[in-house]
Amino acid sequence: MAAKMTFTNPFTVVNAPAGSGKTTSISKSIKQLIRHSNKKILCITFTNRAAEQLLNRIDDEQVEVSTIHSFISNFLSTFFEKREVVDLYVEVFGSEIVRILSSSKEKDIEKIRKYKNKKDIEEDEIVNLQTVIANIRSIYYNETQFTSHLYGGLSHDDLLRFSREIFKRFSKIRNVITQAYSHVFIDEYQDTKHEILELFYYSLISTSTKLVLMGDEMQQIYSETVNDFQHIIEKDFYKDNILKNNWRSQEHIVNVLNNLYFDEKYKQIAVIGGIEKPKVHIIKTLNEANTQEGALQLVLRNQELFEQINAINLYNAFEERYAFYDKYNSKQIITDMTSENPDELMAILIFITDIIGFFDTGRHSQLIRRVSQYKYSNKALWDIHKHEDKVKINSYLRALSQKIKEDMNINELFSFLAEIELIEDGYIDELRHAISENEDFERKILEIKYAEFNNCYQECKQPSVSTQHAVKGEGHDVIALKLADSSSLNVQMYLFLELLAKDIFDYKTLKGIVNQINALKTKYSEIIGDSLSGIKTDVFKEKKELLDQLIGDIIYVLTENEDLHNFPLVKDSFQRYRQSSNVTNFKKCISVVNKLEGSILAYKLFYVGCSRAKEKLDVYLCEDKIQGFITEFSSKMERFGFEVINETIQAK
Fold first, then answer.
1. Is 16 annotated as a binding residue?
2. Domain ranges for the chain
3. Residue range 11-75+165-252, CATH number
4. 19 is in an annotated binding site
């Protein structure tokens, strides 16, 4: 069984490689801790799903489990009404408020016009900072990407930033944490924003409350998270490497994972004996991958996932709806097939699919229970007193069952639902009105076939495809990992494989180089006041001396690894700039260093994908992408413990 941990140090970080039983260890440790303390224990998780999994294992009022945004918004909600907190908001965001009020940009002028309308301010009256301050009665979290500065609203990211400032300023608020909790656990710390890690760290210094960070650096998928806190971890945190066993994967897969992992001290011991070697399949195209029936296929992008299950139009429509909404994203919405889905359109589609599934399979008690749970079901219809009531309901359900099996779109489904009485009178019209508030979403969603939703529904009930970054923490018997690049996500998978094959890829060295270069890019970008990747010709010419200096500084950093510095992609790009220092060649140099960063992300995604497999692992990649280094690549994969199968040779 996974180890139970003890925490005697004020600050502890537990690096838990994939399959090490982290969730089990957390739950066992917490159960032990609550036996010896009257205080609560706070567990911060990265996702709602992780929170639910932990709550299922620890059902105790002494344990509080929450995502960070839920915790912060709930914890600080009472303080958001305090005048001192409102004043701090103005102190932190006052310069942005002044910028909006003095701006001549059309979008800011429109913001002021709407502000006047909402606050009943005369059109010719001037709105100044004092006006805004007087009108902000409390601060609130608006659950979007945008901070509503004129109203006291906080975006997803600014909630974290402002919370850190609140904790810094007010010791009484910090004391509430230490008085309430004996321990604070932060799960998946590697993907947690540094503002949150700082918030808890500085709140708990010199107190009896202990802070425990749990996660795995190899599974850090999101950039700009823990990196700015890493120096504090190195300096002040006790490193606990107690989780040595791998409880998920068979021995041959664990062997591959150990060879992939960047640090030997985190090598794992396989609890499950070897079954068969993992395989690398070299094929012509990923579409030709002959995956095993029942395998969970791991693809790179959400688009690939929804294309594969024939639900891409549904995904695109919800992308439109949730483009600027940060509490949930489109994928979370259309893959949550529970009765708790917060989107009302999805909720009604889930409801009718659930009840027809129960009706078709004769599970009548579950059908009645589901109807009672849905707040918009027509309760009068379902209040059964006589045989005629049953007959009526049965006819409606049979008609709906037949209808949803036809080639109908969502608009047609709504019209049919309005005709029958299963849903509360008037609710379909309310739903149509809510959808119409976003014209682009309305245009897309109403024409989408119900079958696309049903494809998504069935996929969620029995998954066959997932994105590579979405399966952290989960194991599956058979994994089919499909390798691909993505410029939009900056996943440079084949660059990583080439660097790995040629013994150039060293995670620690490359990470250090990339961090130094990113610091240089940030510094010079701030000096010139423009983005380096999208720099215009006139700005380049004006700042050329500075930008030449930046290129020189980057080259100096790259020389820390001579093999990397001489790698053709790197060497050729910087040589071209030296020969002809124009804006095009400058952008190519910046693109190259961005690709190096993308190779690090690819490395982690490759590891995460492999680590999901319990019994069987098949990796698929395209022959033309590795043509120039196929011999070195095959040899490297075999040394790592893979069996390499070149199916393009077998097919000839």
1. yes
2. 11-75+165-252, 90-160, 258-302+465-652, 310-461
3. 3.40.50.300
4. yes
